[in-house]
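#struct-pred
JK: can someone run the complex with magnesium ion? inputs below
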Amino acid sequence: MLSRQMSRAHVHTNCRVVGVGSRASGTAISALGFDLDGTVYLGSELLPGAADLISALADAGVPYLFVTNNSSKTGEQYVANLLRLGLPASRSSVLTSNDVAIAHLHRSGVRRPFLVATPAVRQEFRDHGFEPVEDQPDAVLITFDTTLDYAKLSRATGYIRAGLPYFATNPDLTCPTPQGPVPDCGSFAALFAAATGVQPVVLGKPEALMAEALQARLGVQADGIAFVGDRLYTDVRMARENGFQAVLTLTGEARREDLVASQYAPDLVFDDLRGLHAHLERLGTLPSSARG
Ligand SMILES: [Mg+2]
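RT: done, structure tokens with the ligand placed:
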């Protein structure tokens, strides 16, 4: 496995791009999706190259979408945060796992969910026609609830044990922060699995529902989309399983040495978004600049 991967790899040492997936590194890119935590920013700090790259995409009219599994905030909160960081963003350029959950729960006929969610996210569900309830819910949805407490844990456990439809916005075990990883929705699901023996239906990356929503928003063919992220088991996996080009940045969770053992091989690997920016200029997706 290792030797096959290595034999496919092509390395451009001058620009630190390493293709280890199935595609040639010169494959055209016409639209991009970006993970946020660990890819575009970490905490309240933009990662190297993020501001220049996103501005260049906006200026050139290249479609892009911010795609996050982090369900602790609403779409509007993400837009406000991105604008505060100086990135061009609007509600239509942000796709969250809560957006996918809202659409999927509507399609599933859910009206009165028990939500393990922050107050702002509860309100976002109300704004989309749901009536979140404490008693007699018709489903359970768990999110990256940074206000999680024992009352919610015990109530949700009872409803899951009772066999209600059970959904999770995302499978991430941890969320990167400047202070290190903190437990995310996937860890909550692991707790509920220990307590009930039941696993949720997962909605965010790497699931196809997220990929379909992403492609619908970008409006181009899958193979023209580069999906950029820092995590192998969500970002790279979703890209590979849904026909996108998988771009890994080494600014978050994954380390270069993790590639050897990973079953999800990215098509392109960059130290940070500056490398992707230079690659898009070489491809002609972005006009060449005089950047050093
Ligand atoms: Mg990430």
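RT: quick notes.
Residues 1-19 have pLDDT under 50 and may be disordered.
The longest helix spans residues 150-161.
JK: thanks, will look after standup
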